[in-house]
Amino acid sequence: MSKEFDVVVIGAGPGGYIAAIRAAQLGLNVACCESNPYDDPKGEPRLGGTCLNVGCIPSKALLASSEEVENVNHHLADHGITVKDVAVDVAKMLKRKDDIVGKMTKGIEFLFRKNKVTLLKGHGKFVGKADGGYQVEIAGKDGAETVKAKQVIIATGSKARHLPSIPVDNVMVCDNEGALKFGEVPKKLGVIGAGVIGLELGSVWRRLGADVTILEALPAFLGAVDAGVAKEAQKLFTKQGLKFELGVKIGNVKADKKGVSLAYTAADGSEKTLECDKLIVSIGRVPNTDKLGLDAVGLAVDERGFIPVDDHCATTVPGIWAIGDVVRGPMLAHKAEDEGVAVAERIAGQKPHIDYNCIPWVIYTSPEIAWVGKTEQQLKAEGRETKAGQFPFMANGRALGMGAADGFVKVIADAKTDEILGVHIIGANASDLIAEAVVAMEFKAASEDIARVCHPHPSLSEVVREAALAVDKRALNM
């Protein structure tokens, strides 16, 4: 007799494991299946998905390590600290990263046990409908079993998009997975794609000593970001040593054990060649929706491979839901988590709601970039009348003391109602500072609300308040 569950979650990434835990908290009998070992030495499935294993968490660990190197080499002298004979142990740096990942993976296993979530080790796919639910096959190392689920949540995430003409071996030509485990610092590093992943990984290896060139097909730098923030970011990253070429067309790529040769057409039409020791391809991600057996339950993906869902992540088949990178919206771990919680609560009869306009974005470069809501260019295209306030970190005492005076905060509000429509930050700790703006927008706050709230002094958060004050041209420290 097959096992039966109220809910089976396919995929144990940020969306999947959070959905499973929340559903279990609500009293449901829950199982979650996962098959990807992510280089586990025993070949066992590792929980946490791309984010924890080969994405968000390991990249932030390496960003932190490389930032320490940058501080020692370029900023400690400003504090009167002299350091000689600095050496970088890449192997130890990578081990630290791996240890953090391992600790967090084990942490999810503990949470599953604590919340009585059944872990099914294997690849999950639909094999058909069952009386009052669905049959899901779990294929693992020891064979396959079929379980029954009243409700199924698809949370299988995404994988790196590759170019058909550029084979990725994750040795010489790498996606995000290979770029996180270079055995040594490449002298010359090429990056295709000036998006979040390209900028973050390019920054890691640039700080450790690589000569980094980033090629971007689009003519504008960070086109989805507020134009003022993007302009400031490109200026600061170029000053740090990253090299950018925008509006390029990638041509033939040749790779061997000695290096990679990449031909491309520059924006001015000239033909160029980039010679590098390693190449990172970071041109976006595609949803993991193949091999799910969707046709067995009457589901199909759209032309881009996403599973169509309504505003509540329900598919067209009753009792089957999809969340995170396999559905519309930004491919962000925290968006997947919120959708996982919302679906679990909806299955349990509650009425949760997600405001997708209030989901923050972050790029963990130095300085960090974070934003929530709409950009000035988006609001202008909508014909919305707005007013904006901007305040620089260079006028903030805490930022100066930290040696982190680059960047600014911009607050955009409705010209008539003063409702906050967007907040855009480039500066130190932007990933933390943006949370105040998210809370404000969730409560439909006005810029006046932030301006009237007492902020601690000295703190970076004062820059957010000053930007809100500047909306009505009454910043106090400028």
Describe the fold and architecture.
- The model has no long low-confidence stretch (mean pLDDT 97).
- Helices cover 31% and strands 26% of the residues.
- It has 478 residues and is of the alpha/beta class.
- It folds into three domains: 4-159 and 286-354, FAD/NAD(P)-binding domain (3-Layer(bba) Sandwich), CATH 3.50.50; 173-283, 3-Layer(bba) Sandwich (FAD/NAD(P)-binding domain), CATH 3.50.50; 358-471, FAD/NAD-linked reductase, C-terminal dimerisation domain (Enolase-like, domain 1, 2-Layer Sandwich), CATH 3.30.390.30.
- Strands 1, 2, 3, 4, 5, 6 and 17 form a seven-stranded mixed sheet that branches. Strands 8-15-9-10-11 form a five-stranded parallel sheet.
- The chain is globular.
- It is built from 13 helices and 22 strands.
- α1 (14-25) packs parallel to α8, α3 (56-74) packs antiparallel against α4 (90-114) and α3 packs parallel to α6 (196-207).
- The chain has helices spanning 14-25, 49-54, 56-74, 90-114, 176-179, 196-207, 227-240, 333-347, 376-382, 397-402, 430-442, 447-452, 461-471; strands spanning 4-10, 30-34, 118-121, 123-130, 133-140, 143-154, 158-160, 173-174, 188-192, 211-216, 243-246, 249-256, 259-265, 271-276, 278-281, 285-287, 320-322, 361-363, 368-373, 386-392, 408-414, 420-427.
Q: For the report, how would you describe the main beta sheet?
A: 7 strands, mixed
Q: What value does the average pLDDT take? A: 97
Return the CATH topology of the largest domain. Answer: FAD/NAD(P)-binding domain
Find the structural class using helix and strand composition.
alpha/beta
How many β strands by DSSP? 22
Q: Which shape, going by the Cα principal axes? A: globular
Number of domains: 3
Just give the CATH class of the largest domain.
Alpha Beta
Distance between the termini: 72 Å
